[in-house]
Amino acid sequence: MEGVGIYRDRFVPRLVNVACGMKANEPLRARVCAGLTGRVVELGFGSGLNVPFYAASVTSVSAVEPADLGWQLSARRRATARVPIARAGLDGQSLPFPDNSFDTALSTWTMCTIPDIEAALGEIRRVLVPGGTLHFVEHGLAPDPKVQRWQHRLDPLQQRIAGGCHLDRNIRALLETAGFGIRDLEVFRGQGPAFIDTQSLGVAVN
Fold first, then answer.
1. How does strand 85-89 pair with strand 102-108?
2. Is the pLDDT of residue 3 over 60?
3. Contact (Cβ atoms closer than 8 angstroms) between residue 108 and residue 102
4. Based on the number of CB atoms within 10 Å of its own CB, is 98 exposed (0-12), middle (13-18) or buried (19 or more)?
5. CB 103 within 8 A of CB 40
6. Helix axes 171-178, 117-127, angle to 10 degrees
7. Per-residue pLDDT tens digits for 46-62
8. Which residues contact 51 (CB under 8 A, 6 or more apart)?
9. Are 169 and 105 in contact (CB under 8 A)?
10. Structural contact between residues 130 and 100, judged by C-beta atoms closer than 8 angstroms
11. In the chain, what's the furthest Cα-to-Cα distance?
12. 3-state SS string over the chain?
């Protein structure tokens, strides 16, 4: 439907830029970006909100971003970047890179939205070098069963208003099923309601 396409292409990137650009998220971005090194692939680059937090050890960033508007919104941030950033992919489910192309990968509040997240994680594993790491902060399934029930109920509505975003994905289970080893993981309640603000921050090893 044309109206749905316009909403997804013209409104959702602006919504994400505002919602994910809140000051409260900056300490989490700093933490998740701190261990990045070498050649980085960033899944869901969006409007470039991670750019100020790239570690000094990063040598290049290949940005996977499907939304043209998101990429346009990132222009000012990219102009201040200390490392080269190239828009090098449109679909996390099918990455246009050879095997073993990257030292580290980055995903910040992106796994919730990718339709086939299993395929995307498989692609990240393929393009990472053996022993390469995926650094992530994601919202997802809460540990409290009562909150989980609300997440399952509200998930269809959330997908409609937030461009396909899921409330109830189990981040740890998705990573382990994809074959990653979990090196570090912290699950915690953010500043918002538990049903939408249960955060998982950590590092997974290829």
1. unpaired
2. no
3. no
4. exposed
5. yes
6. 50
7. 999 999 999 999 999 99
8. 74, 77, 78, 80, 81, 85
9. no
10. yes
11. 45
12. CHHHHHHHHHHHHHHHHHHCCCHHHHHHHHHHHCCCCEEEEEECCCCCCCHHHCCCCEEEEEEECCCHHHHHHCHHHHHCCCCCEEEEECCCCCCCCCCCCEEEEEEECCCCCCCCHHHHHHHHHHHEEEEEEEEEEEECCCCCHHHHHHHHHHHHHHHHHCCCCCCCCCHHHHHHHHCCEEEEEEEEECCCCCCCCEEEEEEEEC
Contact 22, 81 (CB under 8 A): no
Residues in the chain: 206
pTM for this predicted structure? 0.90
Q: Check pLDDT > 70 for residue 5.
A: no
Contact 134, 128 (CB under 8 A): yes
Residue written as token pair 């000051």: 23
Contacts of 76 by beta carbon, 8 Å cutoff, 6+ apart: none
User: Two tokens at 24?
Assistant: 């409260």
Q: Which two tokens stand for residue 143?
A: 């540990």
Whether 195 shows a pLDDT value over 80: the answer reads no
The pLDDT of residue 94 is: 92
pLDDT digits (tens, 9 = 90+) for 93-150: 999 999 999 999 999 999 999 999 999 999 999 999 999 999 999 999 999 999 999 9
